[in-house]
Amino acid sequence: MVSLVSVSAEPLSASGRSSEKLSLPSLQYKMKTDPEGYDTELHLIRSQFYSALELFQQQAALNFSSITGVGADPTVAKELGDRAMFLAHVTPFYPKQLAEFPSDLAAFLKSSARTLPSGLRFHVTQALILLVNRKIIDIKDTLALFMELQTLDDRNLRKLAFSHVVHSIRRMNKSHKNEAKNRALQNVLFALLQQEDEAKAKRSLITLSELHRRKVWFDDRTANAICTACFHSSSRIFIAVLSFLLDYEKIENDDEDADDLSSEDEMAKNPQVVINKETAYKAHHKGTTASKKKKKAKLQRAIRSMKRKQRLSSETSNNSYYSPLYHLKDSQGFVEKLFSRLQTCNERFEVKMMMLKVIARTVGLHRLILLNFYPFLQRYVQPHQKDITNLLAAAVQACHDMVPPDAVEPLFKQIVNQFVHDHSRPEAIAVGLNVIREICLRMPLLMNEDLLQDLVLYKKSHEKAVSAAARSLITLFREICPSLLVKKDRGRPVDPKAKPKAYGEISVLSNVPDIELLEHEDEVDGSEDDESGDEAASISSYDGIGDSDDEKSQYTTDGGSEAEDIVDEEDDENDSINEDESDDADEEENDDEDNVETEELDAEEDDDYEEVSDSSKPDDGAGDIGNEDPKAKTRKRKLSDFEGQLIAADTSLRALKRLAEAKTGGSSSDLADGILSDEHFQKIKKLKAKKEARTALAQQGFKIPSSDQLSFKRVDPSKLEAHVRLKLNKEERLALVKAGREDRGQYQARTAIKQNKTGGLSNRQKEHKKFMPFAAKKAKAQRSRQEKNKKKLRSGKQFRGKKAWKQ
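That's the Protein SDA1 sequence above. Prediction below.
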């Protein structure tokens, strides 16, 4: 006889070959090792499970239960849970005998889940999860049951069911994605999300959000289902969806993250970051310590800017941007519906701000047109408004080049009038100028010349935050439209004639982007990206001056054109001085001095060019040229032979055009068929990376991002505020000084260090220990006595030397 002892030490008799007592875990192990030898025990425990199940149901029907479950006989619940777990473990080894057990267990849990005791319900749920993990039951048949179990008021059970659903779907999509099975599971969750029952909709939303955050379900169907939940009747579901969407829009500081990683690791991860070896070598090994520090900083800035570009491009091209707002199918309809709910809702101000952020982010991301949104924002634009920086960041986010400037102009003017005036606080002025800069970065057509010149005057403010914001506005318009600035504020723009595109103007590509890099491949590979590259190019051009008459005329025309530029600059300066008579006298004097210096430098360069062109002439006229002053000759040629220089310039330009056409024709012969292979595209990618590296190293000012980059860029409200480092007091300065001296040793005088040194004697100490003959020592002592006597005689008197008449 085999007696089975349960976990509660109650023996269960059964017929068998031996009379030993076994517990359920030991019997379970033996049944797994020898399934055929324990058929009798299996039928016994199976019958015990069904009898306990029937007894429990009868007790529930007779209402022998308390509020927490069956209270009359707790041993029934204990036996039922133990045998359910036992049969779940051995079901894979007895598929025919226990074929109906999984469905019966699921039906029992579904019908009696709310009335079961918490312990029994937890054990039965564990047994069902074990059957799902062994793939005896499909997750599609039990998903609705597990979602219903999450709505019960049982924290442990809710956590268990939620983790099981998430991990099961993750395992199912780990190796490959079964779209048919995923679609069936998504339909179950989507149906629960659309129900009016708040508990079921909330659990479905939490499950979908977790799967989307874990990158398991990041397709369009899931994203649209989550976004559609914004219009649920329950305010809790609505707020939960808004917070989830805004969590994806958290702004990460890319600059700090880029500094944390080592450059070698980043170069290995991003092979497209191409920096010339010569530039890196110069930054670490050539020049003084200060120059090397500047070169290293410049190199790191270039690497960071290139990494940022590549990260942004990878987000757009590799579908790594998983925000649900990015996958909206009907983004315009979503925004209009959400905005109509915003206008009519009676929620608190924080909820309205969340709705504003979601609307603004969607409008900026998909470049939508929602004309009523800007007048709605206009009513909240006040310096004393709560969370005004978040509101202004939303206003900036909703601006893009597809919106008509007339629709945003009232909002833009109100920001200027409310924030930027003389009676406003410095913090408000700084925030207003930063917001104006960000809006003009996206819609430069809003700015006019008079308004810009008034805003630029804040660069003279004594408040550092205000002056920095005004200078950033000047830097922006130096790139996008320098003509709106006064000449002294233009600096040295890259393109002096740059103007923003008109509304609706687009640039249409007529060829493969960056295909011209293949045509000029040698120039891209051979060009140097350091500062001395231009000088080397100019020196190499000077070496071949005497090769042809065209080159000789080219250099003479360069001198003439520079003279013209100087005259034009003088005229422009006179005009600008007449226009800006209201400026300070000190600034005018500084500008005049700078202009005079530039004119002198340009004149010297012109003289050099003319002298070089004179020396390249034939020898037969050398005697005539030598009789005259070379400077007078060059000035005479500038004024007298100006028409000849223009004709020579025309001929040289024609020759250069013919040379360029021949070169492009020869290089494009390889691509005559118009078909590009994968090797061509890979080469274009590498050449583009090299070109970006060279421009990043050579760039000094602000670079304007494209409209697509601005649509993906998230506006950080904290960056709109004024962050000015306050002046430290004496205690804080001393603390910084002491903190910098922690690794430094104790201060000692130089003589004390020399006395305590262990590396040997100095040369002077060695001289004292040299062995000299007695005569040498005597002579040395005599010389020292004579010198001491001379010093005594001279002490207290001014030694003037011998008089001239006494010699």
